[in-house]
């Protein structure tokens, strides 16, 4: 069995953390990427049981909508802060998409419904 180094393990942990923060399961990554990123492959990157090339990591970052810097351990503090600030926007977009998947509304109507619900929740 392959013994992963500390950096590979830290990278895998970061990949898992970012995926989970963005609300993706391994299955969702596979489905939403049209099979470009199979669950078994992404899971093996996260467990550091398989190496990931810079090219594939760049493609994965683009799929997730983040900078590759966010996926690497030890990124500059500013990059992490900018990424954390963009997560609420991504979550809001995911919420709008979720509403639209169950209701026949426009994107703006879904956003308005969510805004009203958040305001009411206080």
Q: Tags for this entry?
A:
122 residues, mainly alpha, 434 Repressor (Amino-terminal Domain), 2 domains, 7 helices, elongated
Describe the structure.
This protein is an all-alpha fold. It has two domains: 1-75, lambda repressor-like DNA-binding domains (434 Repressor (Amino-terminal Domain), Orthogonal Bundle); 76-122. 71% of the residues lie in helices and 0% in strands. The protein is built from seven helices and no strands. Helix 2 packs across helix 3 (39-46). It starts with 5 loop residues before the first helix and ends with a helix. The model has no long low-confidence stretch (mean pLDDT 79).
Q: What ranges have pLDDT less than 50 throughout 5 or more consecutive residues?
A: none
Mean of pLDDT: 79
**Backbone shape:** elongated
CATH class bucket of the largest domain:
Mainly Alpha
What is the annotated CATH architecture of the largest domain?
A: Orthogonal Bundle
State the helical fraction.
over 70%
CATH superfamily of the largest domain: lambda repressor-like DNA-binding domains
Q: Tell me the number of structural domains.
A: 2
* CATH-defined topology of the largest domain: 434 Repressor (Amino-terminal Domain)
Order of helices and strands: HHHHHHH
Biggest sheet architecture: none
Number of strands: 0
The DSSP helix count reads: 7
Structural class: mainly alpha
Topology diagram in text:
Elements (H helix, E strand, L loop, with lengths): L5 H16 L4 H7 L6 H8 L7 H11 L3 H4 L5 H26 L4 H15 L1
């Amino acid at each position: 069995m392959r013994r992963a180094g500390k950096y590979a393990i830290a990278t895998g942990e970061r990949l898992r953390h970012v995926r989970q923060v963005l609300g993706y399961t391994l299955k969702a990554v596979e489905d939403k990427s049209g099979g470009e990123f199979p669950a078994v492959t992404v899971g093996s990157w996260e467990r550091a049981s398989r190496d990931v090339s810079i090219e594939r990591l760049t493609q994965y970052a683009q799929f997730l909508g983040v900078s590759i810097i966010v996926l690497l351990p030890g990124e500059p503090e500013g990059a992490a802060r900018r990424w954390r600030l963009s997560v609420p926007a991504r979550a809001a977009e995911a919420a709008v998409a979720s509403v639209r998947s169950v209701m026949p509304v426009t994107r703006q109507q879904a956003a308005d419904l969510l805004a009203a619900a958040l305001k009411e929740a206080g």
